[in-house]
Amino acid sequence: MSDLPKYSVRENPRAKHFLMKVSVKEGLIVVVPRGFDHARIPGILRRNKYWLERAQARVSQQRKFFEPEPPGKLPERINLQAIGEEWVVDYRPTDSRRATVMERRGRRLLIYGDTDNVTVCKQVLRRWLSRKAHEHLAPWLRQLADENGFQLGRVLVKSQRTRWASCSHRRTISINQKCLFLPSDLVRYVFIHELCHTIFLNHSGQFWALLHKHDSNFNQADSALRTAWKLVPDWADSRQ
Fold first, then answer.
1. Which domain holds residue 182?
2. pLDDT over 50 at 1, yes or no
3. Residue 71 within a domain
4. Which of 54, 84, 105, 125 is least crowded, fewest Cβ atoms below 10 Å from its Cβ?
């Protein structure tokens, strides 16, 4: 049994066949019909060794997005789903009372200086995050505006606490730099949503009709955003 991953068994009276499921939350689940001989399970798992290895590798990658760093801990990796970048973070202590962040080859970030000061390190990481948002998110928003015929004013990058983005009556759109942690399809929805506000600065029927015209799946995206804050790591929130 030592060569097998941990698993739990569920009997389902409606199940007709042996079924294996691997998820971030529950790990490996074996679903069997009622009355199935549990002694057969280890042998079946061994025969499906390569399928299990691939499934567990996939879940391991997904877990990086859904399991944030423990509070107070500095990140070892940073996943910017919106732009498809994953960065490895290295720390190098020096005698300086400050900390500096530097991008290196192979998507590695080097933070050097007072790396024992967690607060200072988080501050420089948030400043780096803001630069990434200016570099990638602001041009992306302007491109969407041009492609879809919206008249856009200024674009600001902020670190809002409760909004992914906002639009003013002057057609200025403020982007939350934490959008970088969202999947790209959700970021696109946030942008289209705010661009529609450049025409209707409300949530009237006309607004929703315009939004549907540009994103027919807006209901699913809007629902997903309600729990998307869990993708934002502790260090990215200035309140921490």
1. 77-236
2. no
3. no
4. 105
